[in-house]
Amino acid sequence: MSDVPFPVLVAAVFLFGTLAILHLFMRQQEAQRKLPEREQYLASHRLDSVVCAHCRSIDTREFGLNDSGDDRRIVACSQCDKLLFRYTRGTPGSLQNDSA
């Protein structure tokens, strides 16, 4: 057996596990912040409307960057779960204004 007391070992595993989860979460948030804006996404993939560039699906889902009420929105494909682009709700050219 190890000379390290069991409670210290449990605390160390918990600490490193928490740090690993936090690191993964921060990487995901950074990837979402680096997504192109809607107009940039459409232009870079030569699209006229929102379509997944990976699987060509028109089904998308959106969510807030930090929480469901966040005005900074992320759009992802519903079929392949790829992140597509970001936009700010309520700005000219946003999805909310297009449907009105």
Average per-residue pLDDT, rounded, comes to 89
* Total helical segments: 3
Number of DSSP strand runs? 3
Described by strand count, sense and barrel closure, the largest sheet is:
3 strands, antiparallel
User: Spatial order of the strands in the main sheet?
Assistant: 1-2-3
N-C termini distance:
68 Å
User: pLDDT below 50 for ≥5 consecutive residues: which ranges?
Assistant: 96-100
Instruction: Please tell me what the overall shape is.
Output: elongated
Alpha-carbon Rg, integer: 20 Å
- Portion of residues in helices? 40-55%
Query: What order do the SSEs take from the amino end to the carboxyl end, as H and E?
Result: HHEEEH
What is the SS-derived class?
alpha+beta
The proportion of residues in beta strands is 15-25%
